[in-house]
Amino acid sequence: MEVRVDNAKCQGHAQCAAMSDDFFELDDLGFIVTISGAVPVRSEDRARLGADACPERVVSVEES
Ligand code: SF4
């Protein structure tokens, strides 16, 4: 699985981190700092939950 993050569109809602048990990392202002890349198998469920929670569709997952 790959996660895609369009960091420039982040609005700082922090829902991605809250719903993914901090798989997605935020800066001190609540904006996402996680970048696109491969997701470890053990973290796939958390990545899906966090991506589904983003109201701006900044984060998505691509099943491989
Ligand atoms: S939920 Fe979406 S908009 Fe909010 S911090 Fe996460 S990536 Fe950014």
From TrEMBL:
<keyword id="KW-0249">Electron transport</keyword>
<keyword id="KW-0411">Iron-sulfur</keyword>
<keyword id="KW-0813">Transport</keyword>
<dbReference type="GO" id="GO:0051538">
    <property type="term" value="F:3 iron, 4 sulfur cluster binding"/>
</dbReference>
<dbReference type="Pfam" id="PF13459">
    <property type="entry name" value="Fer4_15"/>
</dbReference>
<protein>
    <submittedName>
        <fullName>Ferredoxin</fullName>
    </submittedName>
</protein>
<keyword id="KW-0408">Iron</keyword>
<keyword id="KW-0003">3Fe-4S</keyword>
<keyword id="KW-0479">Metal-binding</keyword>
<dbReference type="GO" id="GO:0046872">
    <property type="term" value="F:metal ion binding"/>
</dbReference>
<dbReference type="InterPro" id="IPR051269">
    <property type="entry name" value="Fe-S_cluster_ET"/>
</dbReference>
